[in-house]
Each structure stands twice: as structure tokens, then as C-alpha cells.
Amino acid sequence: MRILVTGGAGFLGSHLIDRLMEAGHDVICLDNYFTGHRRNVQQWIGHPKFELIRHDITEPIRLEVDQIYHLACPASPIHYQYNPVKTIKTNVMGTMNMLGLAKRVKARFFLASTSEVYGDPDVHPQPEDYRGNVNPIGIRSCYDEGKRVAETLAFDYHRQNGVDIRVVRIFNTYGPRMLENDGRVVSNFIVQALRGEPLTVYGDGSQTRSFCYASDLIEGFIRLMNSEHTGPINIGNPGEYTILELAQTIQGMINPDAELIYKPLPQDDPKQRQPDITKAKTLLGWEPTVQLQEGLKQTIAYFRDRIEAE
Ligand code: NAD
Ligand code: UDP
């Protein structure tokens, strides 16, 4: 199959491309390199089945493909808040352009949505039919509401134009190829501990998150794309930790003498988050296999190499 991956030079997109290339597909990676990097897909550059296109999805593009994995959008709060209007354009105009492409060439369209559509949830853990608690005018809304509109667009193109869609709601995912300055908690804590800097815990560290390793997530993507279910389907690891527990785990694995310092909690920071993965288990036969300690070990090894190469 010929498969387009938008945001393919990013963290998750590049892991997905590895899997698709290894399976023998023709892959087009499309990215504007805002938070992605050519080095993430370096091993495929020059391969006859791989094509790299520098393009911003807020502009339309004409391509002939069978499947579209639509991941292009900054995912870390510091990056999506850097230019919030651009984040909304990417989610709304960008998703509309990619759905328009899917409609024209009759490609199956996969949307990378997010657990952020649940906002600061008052139902715990979060099942797919929970409609969320999102602040429409807060500093996270360019991303949260942007993704909610992206989901709406996907379902409207499906109902109105018969576009074949798949929607995944991704919970916090980590692994090699996150950016060192990404701002997300796992990469921040690892890079800080490796550099001998204090680990920055926001608030009192009692807020929770559930961390999924990248390879588990990508397996879920591929199963959903090739299933008969439109979704939305949660993909994430239900193992829930407080941010303080995560800091202490990483401290223990890298440098037990590393200091923990407390910084103000960002506005609208969700207090808790854990996926209900009943649907993924029953409909896709999917569940995560990589334990936090093991995933952290791999991620630490990656950042150690990158920091040593600096
Ligand atoms: P990332 O920032 O590494 O990847 C996003 C990619 O999209 C980057 O390569 C970036 O350059 C590209 N991009 C951004 N705006 C673009 C535009 N206008 N045109 C073309 N390319 C553009 O982030 P990631 O963690 O790999 O996230 C991938 C997708 O998964 C995103 O849609 C994100 O919202 C979603 N997601 C990720 C997580 C997570 O924990 N990693 C959680 C929920 C949802
Ligand atoms: N966080 C933290 N220290 C950091 C970065 C993040 O304590 O250096 C916290 C953040 O406030 C949030 C959690 O870790 O409660 C997860 O943050 P991240 O940005 O990784 O993801 P999101 O908030 O989007 O789930």
C-alpha cells in the first residue's frame, strides 16, 4: 500500500514509519519540521519506497495514497502554546485539508486525537463515551478544542462524504526520539537527571498520568487502522502514577542524589488521567506489554547517547 504519514518526522510519526517501512509499504512522510527532525527518519532517506516532503498541512496538497495516518500537530504544551493560533489552524485547516485529500483519493483516514479531549476529567478512568471537561478559553484549549474539532471534522466527512475514518485517543506516550527540550514530563525528568540538574515537579506532584511506551502505542495504531472500527478508541497504558512517583522513579534509575524542586502548576493542568482500555482490548485485542521501568530504561539509554553526542 502507499501510505501517507503527516507529522512523520516527529516522535510518534517516525516510530510508525519504521513499522510501515519494515512491513514493505510505500511511505510518504510529510512534515514542516516544527517539532520534527530529519534525523528521526534518517535511516529511510534514499530507500526506494520512502519519500520525504517538507510541507505545512495548513496548505492543501495533492497526492495519491491508500491510507493516511494524520499525526501532524505539536503535542507538547510548550510547543503547542508557542503559537496557539497556528496550533488551531493545524488542527482545523490542516485536518480539513487531509480529510479533503482522503475524500478525493478514497483513502482510509486515521486521526491521532488525544486524551486531552477529556480535559480535566471528573470521570475516572476515562471511557470513550465520557464527553470531557474542557476549558474552551484556557491556554490548553488551542490543542484540546483543536483536537475536538478535528474529531468532529473526521465524523462529519465520514457521515457526509463517506470517508473511511479511524480515530484514536492517545494517552501520554514516551520513548526514544522525544525532543530533549520537548517540555513533556518524561523527557524533562530524564534530561534533567542526566545533566545533574534538579527535577522540576510542577505543583505538589500529586497529579497523575498514565504512561504508554511508544512501541505499544504504534501496535495499537496499526491494529485500529486495519480493523473495521471507526473509534474513537483509547490507546494508552492504564498504569497510573503521580508525577512525584515518576520523578522518584527516574531519580532512582539515573541519580539518587538528584534534587527535586517544586514549580508552580501550569493553568488548567489536569489532576488525573487514566485510560479505560476495555474497547481496545475487546475490539482490537490490544493491550500494552512494556512496563514503565523497562520503557524508561530504553528512553534513558536514548537520551544518554544524545547528550553525550552534544
Ligand atoms: P511531535 O511534536 O514529535 O510530532 C508532531 C509532528 O508534526 C512534528 O514532526 C511536527 O514538525 C509536525 N507538524 C506540526 N505542525 C505541522 C504542520 N502544520 N504541518 C506539517 N507538519 C506539522 O509529537 P508526537 O508526540 O509525535 O505527536 C504526534 C501526534 O500524536 C500529534 O497529533 C499529537 O497531538 C498526538 N498525541 C501525542 C501524544 C503523546 O503523548 N506523544 C498524546 C496525545 C496525542
Ligand atoms: N510536569 C512536571 N514537570 C515537568 C513537566 C511536566 O511536573 O518538568 C507535569 C505537568 O504539570 C503535568 C504532567 O507532568 O501535570 C504531565 O505533563 P506533560 O506536559 O508531559 O503532559 P500533559 O500535561 O499534556 O499530560
Task: Summarize this structure briefly.
Helix content is 38%, strand content 17%. It has 310 residues and is an alpha/beta fold. α5 runs parallel beside α7.
Please name the defining characteristics of this protein:
310 residues; alpha/beta; Rossmann fold; UDP-galactose 4-epimerase, domain 1; 2 domains; 7-stranded parallel sheet; two-stranded parallel ribbon; globular; binds nicotinamide-adenine-dinucleotide; binds uridine-5'-diphosphate
Set out the fold topology.
Elements lengths: L1 E5 L4 H12 L3 E6 L18 E5 L12 E4 L6 H4 L3 H22 L2 E7 L26 H21 L3 E6 L2 E2 L10 H10 L4 E4 L5 E3 L1 E2 H12 L7 E3 L4 E3 H12 L5 E4 L14 H7 L7 H17 L2
Parallel strand pairs: 1-2, 1-4, 2-3, 4-5, 5-6, 6-11, 7-10, 8-13
Antiparallel strand pairs: 9-12
Bound molecules: nicotinamide-adenine-dinucleotide (NAD) and uridine-5'-diphosphate.
CATH class bucket of the largest domain:
Alpha Beta
Overall spatial form: globular
Q: Predict the CATH topology of the largest domain.
A: Rossmann fold
Ligand list:
nicotinamide-adenine-dinucleotide, uridine-5'-diphosphate
How do the helices and strands follow one another from N- to C-terminus?
A: EHEEEHHEHEEHEEEHEEHEHH
Distance between the ends: 38 Å
**Secondary-structure arrangement, i.e. CATH architecture of the largest domain:** 3-Layer(aba) Sandwich
Q: How helix-rich are the residues, as a percent range?
A: 25-40%
Radius of gyration: 19 Å
> What is the averaged pLDDT score?
97
The spatial strand order of the largest sheet comes to 3-2-1-4-5-6-11
Q: Count of DSSP E strands?
A: 13
Q: Can you tell me the residue ranges where pLDDT is under 50 for at least 5 consecutive residues? A: none
Query: How many individual helices?
Result: 9
